[in-house]
Amino acid sequence: xxxxxxxxxxxxxxxxxxxxxxxxxxxxxxTLVSILCIALTGCSSTLEKKTMDRLYSLHVMPLLEGxxxxxxxxxxxxxxxxxxxxxxxSMTLVPEGxxxxxxxxxxxxxxxxxxxxxKGDPSDIGILxxxxxxxxxxxxxxAPFQKIILIEGKEQYRMCPLDNDFRKYIDEQVSxxxxxxxxxxxxxxxxxxxxxxxxCFCPLHVAGFSAREGKNYTREELAKRVVEDEDFAKKYDRxxxxxxxxxxxxxxxxxDRHAPGTPCSYCTCLGDARHxxxxxxxxxxxxxxxxxxxxxxxxxxxxxxxxxxxxxQGKFQIASISPDTMIxxxxxxxPQNRWSTAAALLHSHYTASILEGCQGxxxxxxSMSKHKPxxxxxxxxxxxxYYGFYxxxxxxxxxxxPEFFLSAVLPEKPLFINPFITSPAPQFCISxxxxxxxxxxxxxxxxxxxxxxxxxxLGKDEAKSFSKEELEHFAAAGMxxxxxxxxxxxxxxxxxxxxxxxxxxxxxxxxxxxDGDTFFRNNGLYASLTPQEPENSRIVTKLFARLSxxxxxxxxLAPGLILTTNKLGGKCAVYAGAAxxxxxxxxxxxxxxxxxxxxxxxxxxxxxxxPHVSGxxxxxxxxxxxxNGDLLFAFFNLAFDPMDEIPFVCPGNxxxxxxxxxxxxxxxxxxQDNVLKTPLMPAFPEIIRVRF
Length: 692
Known about the structure:
By secondary structure, the chain is α/β, with parallel strands linked by helices. Helices cover 33% and strands 21% of the residues. The chain has an 8-stranded parallel beta barrel with strand order 1-2-3-6-7-8-9-10, surrounded by 4 helices. Strands 11, 13, 25, 26, 28, 29 and 32 form a 7-stranded mixed beta sheet that branches. The radius of gyration is 27 Å and the shape is globular.
């Protein structure tokens, strides 16, 4: 049995037929367009020919000796059935042994055997350089190259990009593989300095930076300066980036010497996203199309509550990348079995990633160290079943815009968040404070840059990260601000943007917050708020102290929520409490009364009634305006409780409601008495299109 594939697609013969016929039509169309492109431009890569306006997904596949036939049959099945567009043969090149083992020669032979067994189009097959610098695992036999030295002086088994012998090794390895003429290369995300690491402070980098600056630094001096002086940290960061770009150039040159024009994409990580555009541009080569796989995987995450936060982190990376770049999601299921990631979670993840602008994915759904096909059957089943769903969703959202408000706004340009400060551990992006709350309450949780005239929500990180001009633009459209953001705006002399002066709380211990008779739990972290123009402000809630939880008598302390109109005419709401997520303090936000209050606040700021899932259903909701004016809503049930129907308040004169089916078609559904007559199962998102 071990030598026979057990991938099964026989359960959906009509669907398989539909996919095959559609792919024939697309191949004919692509061929005609390719001929035209060649006639007009003289060149055209297979990447551009086969991704035209379609999702582009890669399947990461091991090269396991003795299983070439099984792997080849699986690869062809997946491509024929829309599960993926290309096969990325995984090759780990991080050096081992003294002298370093010629891994490329061994892997090249395995690649030839696999390709000989493959009965499909040879241009379906490319190479993933799964490790170059190294992911950090220490092998039994180490290579003699200079290793990366972390800020505290600890050596890590990752190769320094400045080591000339290592550079020669990588050049030779990539050259060997380029001679195979693969359809594409992809460089994996070990090609980085920061995420999970702290840069490199090895003797080569210390000496090189010293020479650049005309000074004679020690590692200890550099380590101290980059923590204490942000401008200095930016200088050292640029130097590290430059050394990585040099290594990227060596890889690109090796490809071009033996397989000129071969596409090469790049996998980035959250902490390194601000460098990814430059790395991807070099790897893509002259005139090549940039492609970046962002870092938004959810390894060993069996629950969905953190999905909104992870999608926000992915969108933060996308915002750092130029819009002419193709973005792939990281739908990895590592370690490639359903104890790590359920197939339904893979489906949710891919759907959510498409909503944020991903144009495909790098699927890692096959066991890498041993042939265990039974662990991947359900992944393939779902990706095949929902092929049409993903394509139609991507087509709808390609030019869609967020609607109503942004629960987090993203910077126009990549931010420098000091990666050398390790205590507390760097988060590498703005925290998107409100996302943690809005994303589970069934209120629209959109995040984007260029918000236009949409009101935005701001936490402390956002208030610190945007320029005065950007904040003024936000304020004119309206803002919802937490206490920590209000303090930061006051510190910067920008309290007139909210009409509220804020200082750190130094008064008595706060017991609770009250809106009339409505009680809200203690937040744990507050600002002291003072309206600048009381006549132009309305205090909605107040903070109180009391002797005990059983004592009804309370002392009023300060405002808890203030609604204002700022000097620019924008409506604002300022909370004294923080929109943070530590421990139990989040309970002050995860509350039905608070949810109703948020809806009232949003109406004040936006001037509109806000669509929402009613009740205490734990739902992640996206709201997008389509090109034709329709609204598209995406519902993710984050809880373990199935919903027989969706209680959904959608203001306006609703004329028609449709849901997206797995095959990519739309089905009309009933919407009556603020209820969508369709179930919402855990981990199975529903995409609903509404016409007014």
